[in-house]
Amino acid sequence: MKGKEWYQTAEVAEEYEDKRFSRGGRLIDRREKEAVSSALGDLEGKKVLEIACGTGRFTAMLAARGAEVVGLDISDAMLSQGREKARVAGLSERVEFVRGDAARLPFPDGHFDAVLAMRFFHLIPNPDRYLREIRRVTDGRLVFDTFNTPSTRSIYNWLLPMGSRLYADEDVHAMLDRTGYKLADSSHDFLLPYGLYRAIPRALADGFYRIESELRATEFLGEFPSVSYWSARVS
């Protein structure tokens, strides 16, 4: 998995949200949480597994919406940040953080009503393997995101130290078919890569986003979103 060692360092965990979700990154955070909330729907009383939960950015949100959440990550340092976030929000009783490998999930078959995997599929070399393991532990919904090609992300990818796995729409449809899922819904966002938004102030990011939203509504540029959100069910 790309960046496996990098994500586990204490320094990265401590600075992760400040670097990625401050300034213009707050817009990214808001848009991602809106997409996840819409895709998962009503969570009251549901058991939800979040894979690659990191610092608990989504974990706490899911618990606040009434879910019983297990956040799984390979990084102890990230999990420590997540536990503190849940504690501060008064959600510790609804959240459990577990260190583990998403390729070998430590849960029984059909244990969860839904699984969330954000910022995950761009890091893994063999998505089918992980999808089959996720399918084992849920009979319900899977929500995940991908970085896309063709898009401006392809250019930005050259500058990243780890790079990212990029997906075309047909790649996602094919891997869902291969692993026993049926696509329920999808949405697409951001023409410009995330890195640009993180580098600029929030007010400027909001202005850029308004302009690109109009461009994404056009027939041509609407075909090149840099990120997609997918909602699938076991077929």
TrEMBL record:
Claim: GTP-binding is one of the keywords in the record: no
Record key words, sorted: Methyltransferase, Transferase
Stretches of the chain forming a coiled coil according to its record: none
Protein's UniProt keywords contain Methyltransferase: yes
Signal peptide range: none
GO biological process: methylation
Domain Methyltransferase type residues, every copy: 49-138
Pfam family, one: Methyltransf_11
GO MF terms, alphabetically ordered: S-adenosylmethionine-dependent methyltransferase activity
UniProt-listed InterPro entries: Methyltransf_11, SAM-dependent_MTases_sf
Protein name: N-methyltransferase-like protein
Species, as recorded: Halalkalicoccus jeotgali (strain DSM 18796 / CECT 7217 / JCM 14584 / KCTC 4019 / B3)
